[in-house]
Write a structure and sequence with these properties.
Blueprint lengths: L1 H8 L11 H8 L4 E4 L4 E6 L2 E9 L2 E8 L6 H21 L7 H10 L4 H10 L8
Antiparallel strand pairs: 1-2, 2-3, 3-4
Helix pairs in contact: 3-4, 4-5
């Protein structure tokens, strides 16, 4: 949270009121996409930037640092942009009724310029089999 304070709160001169940095981050970033990497590291992608962490045990993730979206390298910016579109599409689908069909998922994905990779991920997240038609 120290990096979040330095790289986001102070950078934008934001006041957290009666909340500490962790509480403020939790309130403002409740829609977060967790992206697990093969080495058990994680990107936590939110509207305010990227937290980078590591899986410590099956029950605990350690947040290692925070990077504001304006401090990202080009490679990480591209990853963030793509994953942020995924987050937005997933949030849009979560606002719809539970009985989503393949056409609906694909239509929402196309609104965010996402293809069948997003649709596969959506089906995986919901333990459903994706059959490409």
């Amino acid at each position: 949270m120290q990096r979040y304070r330095e790289r986001y709160l102070r950078y934008y001169n934001l006041e957290t009121g009666n909340y500490n940095a962790f509480e403020y981050f939790s309130m403002k970033n409740n829609n977060t996409l967790y992206v697990r990497q093969p080495d058990n590291s994680y990107y936590f992608i939110s509207e305010q930037g990227v937290m980078i962490g590591r899986l410590v045990s099956e029950c605990m993730i350690s947040h290692r640092t925070y990077i504001g979206d304006d401090n990202l390298s080009l490679r990480k910016r591209i990853i963030l942009d793509e994953e942020y579109k995924t987050l937005c599409a997933a949030n849009a689908l979560l606002r719809l009724p539970d009985n989503l069909n393949l056409e609906t998922v694909r239509n929402v994905a196309s609104q965010y310029n996402l293809g069948d990779e997003f649709t596969r991920r959506w089906y995986t997240w919901h333990a459903m089999e994706f059959v490409q038609s």
